[in-house]
Design brief:
The structure is a homodimer.
Chain A: E1 2-3, H1 4-14, E2 20-24, E3 37-38, E4 48-49, E5 53-56, E6 64-71, E7 85-89, E8 101-104, E9 108-110, H2 112-115, E10 124-127, E11 135-136, E12 147-149, H3 157-165, E13 170-174, E14 179-184, E15 188-189, E16 200-201, H4 204-214, E17 220-225, H5 229-242, E18 245-249, H6 254-266, E19 270-273, E20 276-279, E21 285-289, E22 292-297, H7 301-320, E23 329-333, E24 337-338, E25 345-357, E26 364-370, H8 379-383, E27 387-391, E28 397-398, E29 403-408
Parallel strand pairs in A: 1-20, 6-7, 14-17, 14-18, 15-16, 18-22, 20-25, 23-26
Antiparallel strand pairs in A: 2-13, 3-12, 4-11, 5-7, 5-8, 6-10, 9-10, 19-21, 21-22, 23-29, 24-28, 25-26, 25-27, 27-29
Helix pairs in contact in A: 1-7, 4-7, 5-6
Pathway (chains A, B): Cofactor biosynthesis; molybdopterin biosynthesis
Function (chains A, B): Catalyzes the insertion of molybdate into adenylated molybdopterin with the concomitant release of AMP.
InterPro entries (chains A, B): MoaB/Mog-like_dom_sf (IPR036425), MoaB/Mog_dom (IPR001453), MoCF_biosynth_CS (IPR008284), MoeA-like (IPR038987), MoeA_C_domain_IV_sf (IPR036688), MoeA_linker/N (IPR005110), MoeA_linker/N_sf (IPR036135)
Chain lengths: 409, 409
């Protein structure tokens, strides 16, 4: 039995990049760039009006200006603006030659009004307005050829906007693993079946597929392997062939562990550990075959959920190049917590409650309230939980008010 | 011009549930239940072994036990266990009649060893072990007919496990809106084109589609509407026909606002507001047509990102039944922040940095460092940002060390 921290280190050592792939811009959410991105244009590409108004020369002290051109966005101005002249210009449009300033519409007044002319509508305007130029200068945000996104950047909507701006519609990112899910156990029937005596419905596969989805991965479910060598081997072989990561659940506790280990061995998988000092989740198996990674998760659903979050998520993050976040938040324990066995690091379901705002820090106190929990098959408890709190090994009692680390689930 | 809080209230008043739909279990992540779920079975469905070991009667004080049956998971035991007898049992398997306790494999020893018999392997075992029963009693987690998930529950992987356990493979949830995205502006070309003089690439659509994806929605992109009545009207009509929510970007500033408003009016859309005291994002238009909702977002990408997060996300949450979270986190400002115009509530890009651990609270101080920011077209600044900080209207200067509200982006 190895410690949880050591097990995680072993997992991370073997979780390696799967190279790169090119994906469309629309699929980049959460992915990590594997190339530097340079701009093929300046932004703004030209001196650009930041307002709807009238483009003038800032040195021109005239009061009334003749409008000699209309410049909507997207149009290239045709005329040179001289003193006493201006162009009507829209937000985002290119400034005409001879101008360096835009007077807002709100600061203008038709000059014709007072003259009563009806032949021309606004041939001249009276302009006032502040010292602000209301012009975005060419290249003030990005220079042509500038490095705008570095290799290793995690892509969010704003990065997608930048990629679109510079015309990058296919993006090189670290490849996402293909993940296969297999449930093992002769007692299992699929959720659309009514279990007979001695049977239960398979809940781990549905849960694992959603946990994968939360990481941006569409897992492939390969079905239930009955507790026999041939059937299990066949499914594991299939998984190893079509996926980079294989998630097994069940079939790894004391009595049947050797069986699954034998199957994995016969498939060429090297087992790195098979017991972790963690509760729930002790009978967790981790193996590799070349770059392929196999997690033999326990059979009990609470253990599956916990081990996935603590070991599989960091492995996925590392493979796709995301920095693994320490997802724990310190909170105050709402009531005393006691336990007998202190050999393992424990994760226990809690509900988060908020207290009054702490005057000094302005941040309200956050409390972790331990829930009633019957053990690792008691999934119902996790539907009431906001998180799991960590109790390090060696610790027996935690007093009300002490700080505990909580991971949201 | 109305205040940001008032604008949000108007948006939420008009964002209404779109009824329910049945979806497969595999698609439930983040969705909200619109039915109560009752269990059709007890869990565990039978007295179940929590260990691999030997099932015995706890009153039986024998030392050596005859193994009269093997009970793997999924099998219904055939024999009655009497005193002096036991059954070899696996984790998850049904306890045989006459037993109420399981002795772990680790606490057993083959009785044959000492006798040197080679005909039968382990016909008897010597059992020791603790007082623990290692049995999960039928119905200890869930009773048959029990309400296990309430209408209104947000579905996570653990809820999917429960739905699978009770055989719910089709789940009734609040319907997700269909969202259409239209970019407006004659200066725009699609990202796969090289912009000519006066043009820029359309970046808002790519960004909005990823912002929608982050909310679990696959948006439909309808293209660029050139700045003319007929073309714009045609696309808006199409959007109103096929979507529940229409997101327009651009075409809503002073000069062209009337134009888009005229188009919306001619399509039967009622405009509820067209200017919000928010920076960036003043020229934001919000309208409805029956239950259909239209957001006329600004043209500048930073404003689009901000207004989507502040107004569109809460509307989506309300429609699909998720509780809208107040996503702001208080942090200390790292350096003085000054501004001239205090009429609008402002959102300014910042980088989050962490300080030393505060001894009292155990939580490290978190700082917001304002970034260099040229204004609402300066998308590059948002790729360097971790969040946007809120400066309420009326506030001119915020001193270094003061608390500010930050929303991660």
């Amino acid at each position: 039995m190895i410690k949880a921290a050591k097990a995680l280190n072993i997992v991370l050592k073997h979780a390696k990049s799967l190279g790169t792939e090119k994906i469309p811009l629309s699929a980049t959410l959460g992915r990590v760039l594997s190339e530097n991105i340079y701009s093929d244009i300046a932004m703004p590409p030209f001196d650009r009006s930041a307002m709807d108004g009238f483009a003038v020369n800032s040195k021109d002290k005239s009061k009334a200006f003749e409008i000699i051109e209309d410049i909507p966005a997207g149009k290239v101005p045709k005329k040179m603006i001289k003193f006493g002249q201006c162009a009507r210009i829209m937000t985002g449009a290119m400034l005409p030659k001879g101008t360096d300033k835009v007077i807002k519409v709100e600061d203008s007044e038709p000059a014709t009004k007072s003259r009563g002319s009806s032949t021309f509508k606004e041939p001249k305007v009276l302009l006032s307005g502040s010292l602000k130029s209301n012009v975005s200068k060419a290249g003030e945000d990005i220079k042509k050829g500038q490095l705008i996104l570095k290799k290793g950047t995690k892509l969010r909507p704003q990065e997608a906007a930048m990629l679109a701006t510079v015309g990058k519609t296919k993006v090189k990112v670290l490849r996402q693993p293909r993940v296969a899910v297999i449930s093992t156990g002769s007692e299992l029937v699929e959720p659309n079946h009514k279990p007979k005596a001695g049977q239960i419905r398979n809940s781990n596969a549905s849960m694992l597929l959603l946990q994968l989805k939360r990481q941006g991965i569409d897992g492939q479910y390969l079905g239930i392997a009955r507790d026999n060598f041939v059937a299990t081997r066949k499914l594991i072989q299939k998984g190893l062939k079509q996926a980079d990561i294989l998630l097994l659940s069940g079939g790894v506790s004391v009595g049947d562990y050797d069986f699954v280990r034998e199957v994995l061995k016969s498939c060429g998988v090297k087992v790195h550990f098979n017991k972790v000092a963690i509760k729930p989740g002790k009978p967790t198996v981790f193996g590799t075959k070349g770059k392929k990674v196999v997690f033999g998760l326990p059979g009990n659903p609470v253990a599956v959920l916990v081990i996935f979050e603590l070991f599989v998520v960091p492995a996925l993050d590392k493979i796709v190049g995301r920095r693994t976040k320490d997802n724990f938040t310190p909170m105050k324990l709402l009531k005393d917590f006691k336990r007998r066995d202190t050999k393992r690091e424990q994760y226990y379901p809690i509900k988060i409650t908020r207290g009054n705002r702490d005057f000094q820090s302005q941040v309200p106190d956050t409390f972790a309230a331990p829930l009633v929990f019957h053990g690792s098959a008691h999934m119902q408890a996790l539907t009431k939980a906001d998180g799991i709190m960590q109790i390090k090994n060696g610790i027996k009692n935690v007093k009300k008010g002490a700080m505990v680390n909580v991971r949201p689930i």
